[in-house]
């Protein structure tokens, strides 16, 4: 399970693995208080994309698509997160005020889709070699 949580919210036992996915360290948070397992700066949006979204937060759909393109181009930055999500709860930590429109939400959605894609194959089982299969 993948969930998102603002860094300023309290730590909960249900958080599982806590990973900060922002490029910049959150203001006013000490490293000890944040209690995270990892900080993956490289999985955050590029500086140019981050700045563009900061100037135009109403353009979330554009940000979302551009960030997803960045993620698709660098699987080495997020593949480890898939492994963590497969082992239990993964909490993506972010500092943005808007809990619904931020990079962690886009990343969580992207990772969930990757997990679904890598799940059990959806194609029918091959019956080649069985009687009446014609092959």
TrEMBL record:
<dbReference type="Pfam" id="PF22752">
    <property type="entry name" value="DUF488-N3i"/>
</dbReference>
<dbReference type="InterPro" id="IPR052552">
    <property type="entry name" value="YeaO-like"/>
</dbReference>
<protein>
    <submittedName>
        <fullName>DUF488 family protein</fullName>
    </submittedName>
</protein>
